[in-house]
Write a structure and sequence with these properties.
CATH topology: Rossmann fold
Number of domains: 1
Strand order of the largest sheet: 1-7-6-2-5-4-3
CATH superfamily: P-loop containing nucleotide triphosphate hydrolases
Strand content: 25-35%
Amino acid sequence: MIQLKIDSLSELDHVAEQIISSLGGRNVVLFRGGMGAGKTTLISRIVALLGSEDTVTSPTFALVNEYEGDEGLIYHFDFYRIDKVEEVFDLGYEEYFYSGDLCLVEWPEKIEALIPDDVMTVKIEVEDDEERVFTID
């Protein structure tokens, strides 16, 4: 487990680098934190550090966005609006989660029963406007 505290958004690349370097073969990363904690902002930094020039936006309505990185595809999920787990089955989540491509997941609480065993979890705690504590496990 790694815990990082930042006082400014300028330090977010360091957190993103730690996440990337700690993957250890895992391809599903869960981002847990409240509304406005900075999940999408952190994901945008990860995607950029992986060589993508795509614009990262939260896929709240589409459920999944796809980005092209230097070493393959990156999938960005946002399950905030999921009401029933069946919606995720309709999306074909297995094809993404078990593809070997990187899957970055916001609001995994909505799909707990479908989460693979070997995942990384990033918990974001808000201390104040810019101060955050990240726990990478």
